[in-house]
Amino acid sequence: MQPASEAPKPPALTRAQKAAAILVALGKPAAGRLLKFFKQEELRFLMEGARGLRAIPQVELEKIVAEFESEFAEGVGLLDSADTMDSIFSETLSAEEMTAIMGGDAAEQAVDDEEPVWPLLEKVEAERLGEFLAGEHPQAAAFALTKVPPSVAARVLLTLAKPVRGEIVKRMLDVADAAPAAVHLLETQLRVALIDDKSSALSSSGQARVASVLNELDKSDLDSVMDDLAEAGATNIEAIRSQLFAFEDIELLEHPQRIVLFDGIQADIVTTALRGEVAATLAEAVLSALGARARRMIEAELKSDPGNLSASEIAKARRQIASTAIKLSSEGAIRLPQPQAAA
Question: What pLDDT shows up at residue 106?
Fold first, then answer.
């Protein structure tokens, strides 16, 4: 008599079923947002795989996640996968979209003409990107930071808490190529959270608009208005402050940055800006950025009678220099000092 055979193992999941399981693990809100970025052929592929998807134990789900680079996702336990996947599709897609997906040859594959996400991240504020990556698995964050220019990655790292930063940098030392499906998932999450976020884009536009107005104020008036904004409970004060620069802030620029700044500014503008009350340290910061001949000429001019030069003309020259610094910063030619909150 033969021993009783063990219970047959469930058939191995197909690639489509594994992909569907990953989406179910993400939950309806996140999975629903991601489905908008799949082509019709890919959606049909997922739906067909989900039809025969059974409940998946935690252990098996973890193995599936590992195939998609386990560092990019977390396991979530038992899943009623097929029903949940149907619910995600029905709640996310319109009837017309469902028909197009399941319509076989009649449905044409959508053209994927979206701009790659990695170059777009260079335009995202370091604080926003850092906040997003801090909420991801350190391996995902490390992979993302290897896909952007070192200057961008460095600014993002500085926004992170030290323990998080250390863990991410450690993983960056030996980060390897990730599975295409895992990369696609991360790219889609970045696009949804940071690139296609219209509200954040509007917020950034508003900050730039406010900063451009405040940069027209004198230093004392600027500090006063910033205090008023804080007292009024305005949000993103530091984001606005990072876009501000006054003539008096030249002292805070590193010497090489000052040289670049004054290289394209006419001597008569510099001379006018140094008229009136100017701290000795500020005047030296300006003059030390000039060539020897230009410095001697301006110092000699400053000893002469300025005539009927008005305070408004001095202020205008100083704002012109500050505006040049802001313009050069936006072009990446110089780096403005980190914002310092008013005492």
Answer: 40
